[in-house]
Design a protein that fits this description.
about 280 residues; mainly alpha; about 70% helix; globular
């Protein structure tokens, strides 16, 4: 959500940077007029390379905690999953909690300033990977195969949205941006309230932890998944606009961070939605 909220501010930044880079004073010896050196500008390929690197970092971190939780969970006499190694399970959950807090901090930071520092971007990706891996292993123990299905669904949805944007079937517009950004802030507020309530042991009933969802929980899961999918249109538009208007190369990290955060958020919601289908 945060990467969507900075869409307009990043556009203004691009315009400013473009003017600064293309209005260098002419200079040279003996009246020879030459153009001042220009800073490197971002390309779409730069965003792709950085996105792959961030997704890979997320995946590696996820494998680490996934393996820990997977090894810590066994089955009882009835075939139900049970924790057999409390130490490993607790360590994985602690790492996941740290990753969650890191991710929350970076997301809040990105609401006010684009993430252009690769260290911050990688810290976010690794932190989210640690959280994602442990939770995914637990879900997979409850519903075998759900993680693979969620990963495939994430790839297919992302590819579908990219195709819709590429062929100009779906495009960004001022109204679309307002709706998506407004909905994004609402979603962030909802999840923040739910998180704080959870820390105090309160269950607001917004999400079904056991997969047995009621009507409200189904609606919330579907709305979040749809929002996650359509938010890529804003990301694609921001990346394309920045590349076309000479944004500095460092802003390729902002585009890569946005896509990575979007993929992670989409995966979480597809994983939850699939768990509802498995239990109903």
């Amino acid at each position: 959500m945060a990467m969507q909220s900075r869409n307009s501010s990043l556009r203004n930044m691009v315009k400013t940077q473009y003017n600064e880079q293309h209005m260098g004073a002419a200079y040279g010896p003996y009246g020879q007029m030459t153009q001042a050196p220009q800073a490197q500008t971002m390309r779409i390929d730069d965003v792709i390379v950085r996105t792959v690197a961030l997704v890979a970092a997320t995946f590696v971190a996820a494998i680490f905690t996934f393996s820990m939780v997977n090894d810590a969970i066994g089955t009882d006499m009835l075939g139900n999953p049970v924790v057999v190694d409390e130490g490993a399970f607790g360590t994985a959950m602690a790492l996941g909690t740290v990753g969650m807090l890191i991710g929350l901090g970076v997301i809040i930071f990105s609401m006010f300033k684009p993430v252009t520092n690769p260290i911050v971007a990688f810290v976010y990706a690794i932190g989210q990977g640690l959280l994602l891996g442990g939770v995914s292993a637990y879900f997979d123990a409850m519903w075998p195969g759900i993680v693979v299905n969620a990963l495939l669904a994430t790839i297919l949805v992302f590819g579908g949205m990219l195709a819709l944007y590429k062929f100009r079937i779906l495009r960004n517009s001022p109204m679309f941006t307002k709706v998506m950004v407004g909905a994004g802030f609402g979603i962030f507020a909802l999840m923040a309230v739910n998180l704080v309530a959870g820390l105090f042991g309160l269950d607001l009933g917004l999400f079904a932890s056991d997969g047995n969802a009621n009507a409200l929980q189904w609606i919330i899961a579907i709305v979040l998944t749809l929002w996650a999918a359509f938010s890529f249109i804003l990301d694609f538009d921001m990346i394309e606009y920045s590349a076309q208007n000479g944004a500095p190369k460092k802003y390729a990290w902002a585009g890569a961070f946005g896509l990575t955060a979007g993929l992670i958020f989409l995966y979480w919601n597809l994983l939850r939605l699939l768990s509802y289908f498995q239990s109903n």
